[in-house]
Amino acid sequence: MPVIVETCVDQSKDLKLISLYDFLSEKGKLADPFYRLEHQEEDMQKKKEAEPVLVRLQRFSDVRHSDDYTLNKALRSCLRNQKKRVAEEETVCRSMGLGLRLLPKSEEDSAAAKRVKFSSRFEKNKKEKRAVITGTSIFPEQSSSSAAAKKRLELESKRRQIKAIAASNLLTAGIKPSSWSQPSVSTVGTKRIPVTARIR
């Protein structure tokens, strides 16, 4: 068996291996209280640096060796909760008469709803009065024509009212609610007279 005599190098230092001699010397140093006191902070720092790696390794080990039953149980409970929430949302929507499911409430939606301003009757009347003012002449009219202008303004206001009535008739399908709107039979003595409904 050949024996190497030249160019021999101790490879334990190159490979960063701990030799038995180093281990025994470290063990002896740890028994020394002054050595422990000097190196305690350094050891704590090394421990803190190695902690995230250990946590990651523990998490990886948990995932790799976890129980399928517990994973399935957690997933089923999550799905049950989700189904309950969806069923509650659908019942709320059905009670409101909606055919679709609403999204959960959010602060952005409530803030946007608060910012919405609906036009009031005051705004509508103000616009109508401005339209009348802009429609009149700026020059003074004679007394006979001022009476005609008043009559014309009255006719315009009546026309607006008639348009409003026509719009409401369109919305109610042209049926005028009154006592004549329902077919009924009136009795006079022993004779029965049929009465029919009038539809405009």
From TrEMBL:
One of the record's GO cellular component terms: U2-type spliceosomal complex
Domain of life, source organism: Eukaryota
One protein family per Pfam: Saf4_Yju2
GO BP annotations listed: mRNA splicing, via spliceosome
Family, similarity comment: Belongs to the CWC16 family.
Name assigned to this protein: Coiled-coil protein
Lineage per the UniProt record: Eukaryota, Viridiplantae, Streptophyta, Embryophyta, Tracheophyta
